[in-house]
Amino acid sequence: MSPGSTEDGEPVLQPDTMQWNNSGWTEKPWSAPHLAPLFTELTSAKSAPSWARRAVKIIHRYTREHGEPPTFRELFTELAAQDPDYADHEEAWSSRAVRSLVMVHWRRQGWVRYRTETRTLRSGPTANGDLFPATRPPRREGARREAPRER
């Protein structure tokens, strides 16, 4: 019998670390002790932008090399290879809950865009503005574009 299960093999649900979804009971990445450190690092205001920039570069490179964007799993596999603390975060990198919620966070921040279909992952407006700055200066606030006058 494993420590997290009953005599008949059913898992013991810890109310503060589990949540229900369509797949059944899953661990909450923000409170499960083995998932929380990586989840916090990938979504905190201090370190999330650098991880998101790495992700966008991987998305662009992968799309160029394969002709289609990566899946979340493929993206996170490549990101995990860049983690100096991979040994401590190994289980968290492979967690579907961590991947999904980090991607939702990065999408809300504008770093990535995706639809519900697979392989629709792209860089978002924040990443495009940060990685590819405009070559011409932005228009002044309130400036109007004059229509050409007919002569």
The helix count comes to 6
The CATH fourth-level homologous superfamily of the domain at 49-129: Winged helix-like DNA-binding domain superfamily/Winged helix DNA-binding domain
Helix content bin: 40-55%
| CATH fold description of the domain at 49-129 | Arc Repressor Mutant, subunit A
CATH class descriptor name of the domain at 49-129: Mainly Alpha
Strand content: 5-15%
**What would the average pLDDT be, to the nearest integer?**
82
H/E series, N to C? Answer: EEHHHHHEEH
Radius of gyration, Cα only, in angstroms? 21 Å
Would you write up a description of this structure?
The protein is mostly helical and 151 residues long. It has a domain at 49-129: Arc Repressor Mutant, subunit A, CATH 1.10.10.10. Helix content is 43%, strand content 8%. It has 6 helices and 4 strands. It has a two-stranded antiparallel ribbon with strand order 1-2. A two-stranded antiparallel ribbon has the order 3-4. The longest helix has 19 residues, at 48-66.
